[in-house]
Design goal:
2 domains; two-stranded antiparallel sheet; 5 helices; 148 residues; Rossmann fold; alpha/beta
Length: 148
């Protein structure tokens, strides 16, 4: 998917060989490129889906309680169905975690995040950290003003 939606469009077809196609390949790639284990990223940017999923971690997945796996295989309710992603603990361990929530249909996810609904993957990841940056597109939050 990364190749089709990004690399091929920016003239980086030759980089396809550097992208992992399986959980095992992804973990091997991380081991080759990180000095410490488990890996610690300087910064991770996350988006949030309408259902509160992030980084291919979906609500209801048993992997949300997995605090030891570095790389996980997950299943999405919509294509692409088979996915590979970092485990929640690895995401949470990043030196800096930046979440950007933007786009149509994300209002319920934002409200769930504000209510700290524990079944939402984004809430799970953020709850494992002391400090994160969360940016929400302003039109997703109802702003109330009173005139007197």
């Amino acid at each position: 998917m990364t190749f089709r939606l990004f690399l091929s469009k920016v003239g980086r077809e030759h980089d396809k060989s550097h992208w992992a196609a399986s959980r095992e390949e992804y973990e091997a790639l991380l081991k080759r490129n990180f000095r410490s284990w488990p890996p610690e990223f300087d910064a991770i940017f996350l988006g949030v889906g309408e259902d509160g999923h992030t980084a291919s971690l979906f609500p209801g997945g048993e992997y949300l309680e997995d605090s030891s796996s570095i790389v996980l295989r997950t299943t999405s309710p919509k294509p692409p169905y088979d996915r590979t992603t970092l485990g929640p603990a690895v995401l949470a361990k990043a030196k800096k975690l930046i979440v950007v929530i933007s786009g149509e249909g994300k209002g319920n996810a934002v409200q769930g995040l504000l209510r700290r609904e524990p079944e939402l993957p984004i809430v799970k990841v953020l709850s494992m950290r002391a400090l994160s940056e969360v940016y929400v597109e302003s039109r997703l939050l109802p702003l109330h003003s009173s005139c007197s």
